[in-house]
Design a protein that fits this description.
It contains three helices and six strands. It has about 140 residues and is an alpha+beta fold. It has a single domain, classed as 2-Layer Sandwich (STM4215-like), CATH 3.30.2000.
Length: about 140
């Protein structure tokens, strides 16, 4: 199992005060309930882990690919069109990418890689965005 708390800690250390809130999925509801005060925020959400058997090499070990979705919540009510929120989102995503690019967590066999990004939704003027990062580890 991959220790996702390490990912959150690294992001919080590297991103610092750029975000008001760092957390996990259980805390998202509270942020959405207080939309005008909470953003920008970042939440680490574990993804499914996929296993590839290494039995063909004579080993009783498994190759596990795991990762996280990083849910980013931004808002900026200073313009009527949401352009400032998009600028905030771009800066935060760039910071996350810079933080995780080339980093190998202690429990992973290779560096973290960016897989995809997508708009996760809109809620009370908030923009929710999700980026997916992955790494591989060997178990057994």
């Amino acid at each position: 199992m991959i220790n996702y708390e390490l990912w959150r800690q690294k992001l919080q250390t590297d991103m610092g005060s750029q975000l008001r809130k760092y957390g996990f999925a259980s805390e998202i509801k509270a942020v959405l309930a207080n939309a005008t005060k909470a953003p920008p925020a970042l939440f680490v959400i574990p993804r499914d882990e996929k296993v590839s058997s290494l039995n063909s090499t004579g080993s009783q070990r498994d190759f596990v690919t795991g990762g996280i979705d990083i849910l980013i919540i931004v808002a900026d009510f200073t313009d009527a069109y949401g352009g400032k929120a998009n600028q905030s989102l771009t800066a935060i995503r760039d910071g996350i990418y810079a933080s995780l690019r080339g980093w190998t967590p202690p429990d992973c066999q290779d560096t973290i890689s960016f897989r995809s990004g997508k708009r996760a939704g809109m809620y009370k003027g908030l923009l929710l965005w999700s980026d997916t990062y992955e790494c591989k580890t060997i178990k057994g």
